Amino acid sequence: MQHLTFEELTEFLNEKTLQYNKPNFIDSDPIQIPHSFSQKEDIEISGFLTATIAWGNRKSIINNAKKIIELLGNTPYDFVMHHQEQDLEPLNTFVHRTFNGTDLITFIKALQHIYKTHGGLERLFQEHASPLSMQKAIHEFKSTFFEIDHLPRTQKHISDPLKNSAAKRINMYLRWMIRNDNAGVDFGIWKSLSPAQLSCPLDVHSGNVARKLGLLKRKQNDAKALTELDNALRSMDPTDPVKYDYALFGLGVFEKF
Hints:
Blueprint: H1 6-20, H2 40-52, H3 58-71, H4 76-82, E1 95-96, E2 99-100, H5 101-117, H6 121-128, H7 135-145, H8 168-178, H9 204-212, H10 223-236, H11 244-254
Antiparallel strand pairs: 1-2
Helix pairs in contact: 1-11, 2-8, 6-7, 9-11
């Protein structure tokens, strides 16, 4: 694929984006969890908790995200806002890889703190966003999130781009919330932010495909690689650079490119 011109590569990726950014994408993707809700706060909370555990096998991510929602009585926002201490007890049973019940309980308390004192998730991200990046906003979000009492171990479950993390899961979450794809996959419910500010969720699949296509030279999937990939994707579409996440992901996961 290296011999493609910039125009040909852009055309190829635009085609692949259209191919994969379709409603049937939802059926095999963790984004199906927030799609089971219609209220804004339910969507953003269920989406956030799902994205938090989105590493490893996609089936187990989906199954465990469903378990979280069941533990919250299938009303995530209501649970976050109105739970009593005893309601948190059943959450101790939860485990997804290194994310356990203690972490989940901390996340529920942190979310309540954000809605009660910081005006909610959208407002918190919007407050520190810059015109072409959400990376400092993610860093600030993390420090606000952990203002409440927590164990140090729980902090690793939110990445910090300013500590050279590609922050794949949280960038994916922001894509879900901010990007309105008119295809019914991404939600676009955070109107105060724009897709131009988003970064591609960089993981093994998208990273490998990006390297094969010549969009990325750096070997590690870290914050520096993310900046490099962002710049390449922005040169193709500055208003909606992360639409190409569908192309890179689809090529990697479904086409074994």
